[in-house]
Design a protein that fits this description.
mainly alpha, 2 strands, extended, Serine/threonine-protein phosphatase 4 regulatory subunit 4, ARM-like
């Protein structure tokens, strides 16, 4: 076959021809860098390393004469070398790394900082060895000209400080820090010193901090550069927590007051945030006389300043209001609340079409900051409920809550969805007032909002339907229809999206619905939907989540007709479905049923349908069934489920004899070994009942036998008397012989009566447990045709196999014994009677 060329699609006019040429030229330009990136033979030769070199020798060679990328690879591989050969790595490789780092680029520096931190975190060497070998290298590169590299080494050093002994920290870090923090040092050096002092505060006692560190702190708080003052101000929180409340009041608070009035906005912002974080350490006097005036001034100037100030203020406002709650006057309380209301709608246009603060057209950066401010207001909404009092929610805060839940920006609504559960808990009896907002968020167009709400959905729904004394039955009944519609809409939207994790999470949380709504509502609105998802969805985690939730719905459904209908559908559409995928999901569903339901329920409805899958034509289904068989066997109870145990053993035997797939057969044999170690639970109550029934039957039989023996003995004594009194002769001997034969026949029947009831022997009375030894005999003795018989107790008790015959004689052999004994005893009795008659005749 030759390719068909359609010339009608090609236009070779002059204009199009030049277009094709230009396209070809662009392609050649694109390909040129690819050709240039190929290595020349000389470059390949330089990059080639002798394969016979050891890892240590190769590392040393690459660090000495290799290219930068090879050296970076060795530095990244340093933790591996330390695990394999720490002594040689420290002796030969680490000195080479120290030499290379002096002239290394940014990539190798960053890699080295990460590798050094990994060696510390994984404790590949002792802390003494680490401080001797690695610490000096870290300290040398703290003031690297690249800010990213400097910060990477600083993070490594801060982690090392926590692990180092105090004396090492004092000599190697604290003492040199005195000179590094001087004004004469570089800006980078002083910034590093600020961050190190914040970490050192947690390492030493208060008196050492007061003597050695606080003088440096004061000096850096008054540094000429605002970056240093701001950085040191943010470390004051760690220092205050280390020195305690008294020193904080006398040393730290005055510095914060001064920094809060600093000319630099970033310094004032750092001072404000530090004051808010340290509110718990200040007493009431300090809060009212020192902190509150500073905060008021900061808030009043915030709208005139940069929006960055408002972003920070909106984030800390909830903590600030609750921290100063006890010292607010009613006027101050109202002022801060109004300030929060203003922030929560900042950037939104009102109904009259004008902006709330009469700003002009906003820039993109301003809009982003306004969105962030409203997001922070949503984050602080639970704290503001506490500030205002939940009793005043409907009057004071509901309008703000409504606006935030309907905000045009997804991040704001997402934050409200995250905090919705906290709001519902705080409202308690008034939770019914926010039902409409729950429905709104459930039906939100963004799945991110739905995903945030789903996390605490069961708790929210329970509060909605059962929370509070004032939430009467009338409110519950009115709220449920909207709620059900919102829940179904949310699931359908999640199902049609590509975010299957949100769909899975939602289905898992819907398992709470039996505690929220009625069984009929679940049956008609949710249960069949779960079955449809199992049958039609293509995502396995989603199918499993739907299967488990369906089993929960079935567990709480008390209507037998609905239960039987669902069970029938599960068996027919999943267990007997045409698709092997559906049959696999049936096994998953059965696993959930064993988890959620009683053992008797599973055995009654699902045990045999599961075993039918041993004949499944797909190997994966049979394989999954084999993995499930130990759990299936654990549902059995003896003697109630003896017949099911026999079916299980027959299925195992068929798999062993008929399975052709080698992978499945391997798993079958492994499963047989596991089944052999299992012990089946015994139903003691049922066992006792059967024992009592058997004892009652045996008692009745013994009584009947005793009565027959007694009647037979009377009959034999009468016959004996008649024989001794009768006149001897041939004519009279014949009837007496007939009567004697009849009595012997009666005795023979009565003696053999017990042998005619083998089911009452002791083997059937006490089947205490049934081991799976038949599995092992089948595996060990499996030949070409798999002819080895089963020796399981359940088979012995039911069919009286070979092992039963070995322990007890069969009924036929016992009948033979009894008849033989009766014949011999009867002959001896006749002979004795004949001797008596002869002796009497001779005497006469």
């Amino acid at each position: 076959m030759h390719p068909i060329i359609i010339f009608s699609k090609m236009d070779f006019s002059q204009s199009n021809l030049f277009g094709y040429i230009e396209d070809l030229q662009e392609l050649t330009i694109i390909e040129r860098p690819v050709r240039r990136s190929l290595k020349t033979p000389e470059e390949i030769e330089r990059l080639t390393v002798d394969e016979e070199l050891s890892d240590i020798e190769r590392a040393v060679y690459l660090l000495s004469s290799g290219q930068d990328i090879q050296g970076t690879s060795v530095v990244a591989n340093l933790p591996v070398l330390m695990r394999q050969n720490p002594a040689e790595t420290l002796r030969r490789v680490l000195p080479k790394i120290r030499e290379v780092l002096h002239v290394a680029g940014v990539e190798m520096q960053l890699t080295a900082a990460v590798s050094f931190l990994t060696v510390l975190q994984e404790e590949l060497v002792s802390i003494h060895t680490y401080s001797h070998s690695f610490l000096h290298i870290i300290l040398q590169h703290l003031e690297h000209r690249d800010a990213g590299v400097s910060n990477a080494w600083l993070e490594t050093l801060l982690a090392v400080i926590e692990a180092l002994p105090k004396e090492t920290v004092r000599h190697e870090i604290l003492n040199p820090l005195v000179s590094k923090a001087q004004l004469s040092q570089t800006l980078q050096s002083r910034l590093v010193s600020c961050k190190i002092m914040g970490k050192l505060a947690n390492k030493f006692e208060a008196h050492i901090i007061k003597r050695d560190i606080l003088p440096l702190v004061k000096s850096l708080c008054q540094d000429a550069e605002f970056e240093v003052r701001s950085c040191m101000c943010r470390q004051l929180e760690h220092i205050a927590q280390a020195i305690g409340a008294e020193l904080t009041k006398t040393v730290v608070l005055p510095e914060l007051v001064e920094l809060a009035r600093d000319e630099g906005s970033s310094v004032r912002l750092a001072a404000f945030e530090t004051l808010v974080n340290l509110l718990d350490m200040f007493d009431a006097d300090d809060r009212s006389q020192t902190v509150l005036p500073l905060v008021k001034s900061f808030c009043e100037k915030s709208f005139k300043a940069d929006e960055t100030i408002l972003v920070s203020l909106s984030f800390h406002l909830g903590k600030l209001c609750n921290g100063l709650y006890g010292i607010f006057t009613p006027e101050q309380h109202l002022r801060f609340f109004e300030f929060y209301k203003k922030l929560s709608t900042l950037g939104l246009q009102q109904e009259n079409g004008h902006n709330d603060n009469q700003l002009q057209v906003q820039t993109l950066e301003q809009e982003k900051k306004y969105i962030l401010i409203r997001k922070n207001c949503a984050y602080n909404f639970p704290a503001m409920i506490v500030f205002v009092d939940p009793k005043n929610f409907h009057l004071e805060l509901y309008s703000i809550f409504f606006c935030l839940c309907h905000d045009p920006e997804v991040p704001v609504r997402h934050t409200m969805a995250l905090s919705f559960y906290e709001v519902a808990k705080l409202l308690n009896s008034g939770v019914y007032t926010i039902h409409k907002e729950l429905v709104t968020l459930l039906q939100d167009e963004s799945l991110e909002v739905l995903d945030a709400l789903v996390g605490h959905l069961p708790e929210i729904l329970e509060l909605m339907t059962n929370g509070g004394e004032n939430c009467g039955s009338e409110n519950k009944l009115l709220s449920i229809p909207d709620l059900i519609t919102a829940l179904t809409t949310a699931e359908q939207r999640a199902a049609t999206s590509l975010k299957w994790r949100t769909h899975e999470k939602l289905l898992q949380k819907y398992a709470c619905l039996p505690h929220i709504i009625s069984s009929d509502q679940i049956y008609y609105r949710f249960l069949h939907r779960m079955l449809t998802i199992i049958l039609t969805n293509n995502v396995l985690p989603v199918q499993k989540a739907a299967a488990r939730t369906l089993c929960v719905y079935l567990r709480y459904n008390r209507k037998q007709e609905q239960r039987h209908e669902v069970i029938q559908k599960l068996i027919e559409q999943l267990g007997q479905g045409k698709s092997y995928w559906n049959r696999l999901r049936f096994l998953d569903t059965c696993e959930f049923i064993m988890e959620l339901f009683s053992k008797s329920f599973f055995c009654k409805y699902f045990f045999l349908p599961v075993l039918e899958l041993t004949h499944d034509p797909v190997a994966n289904v049979r394989m999954k069934l084999c993995y499930l068989l130990p759990k299936v066997k654990s549902t059995l109870r003896i003697p109630t489920d003896k017949h099911l145990l026999q079916q299980l053993e027959l299925c195992i035997r068929k798999l062993l004899c008929q399975e052709k797939d080698k992978d499945v057969l391997t798993i079958v044999k492994r499963t047989v070994l596991e089944l052999d170690r299992m012990e089946i639970s015994v139903d003691a109550e049922q066992l006792e009942k059967e024992k009592q029934q058997n004892e009652g039957r045996s008692t009745n039989i013994n009584n009947k036998i005793f009565e027959k023996k007694r009647r037979d003995s009377k009959t034999s004594s009468v016959l004996a008397k008649s024989i001794t009194l009768s006149v001897p002769g041939s004519s009279s001997a014949t009837p007496a012989g007939k009567e004697d034969k009849k009595s012997k026949l009666v005795r023979s029947q009565s003696f053999s009566t017990q042998a005619l009831h083998p089911k009452y022997n002791t083997l059937d009375k006490c089947p205490n447990k049934s081991s799976a030894t038949g599995y092992m005999s089948s595996v060990s003795g499996m030949g070409k045709n798999c002819m080895l018989p089963f020796t399981d107790d359940s088979f012995r008790t039911h069919s009286g196999g070979n092992s039963g015959n070995a322990a007890f004689p069969s009924s036929s052999s016992r009948n033979l014994y009894n008849s033989a004994d009766q014949k011999s005893s009867g002959n001896k009795e006749i002979q004795s009677r004949k001797m008596n008659i002869k002796s009497r005749k001779s005497n006469s």
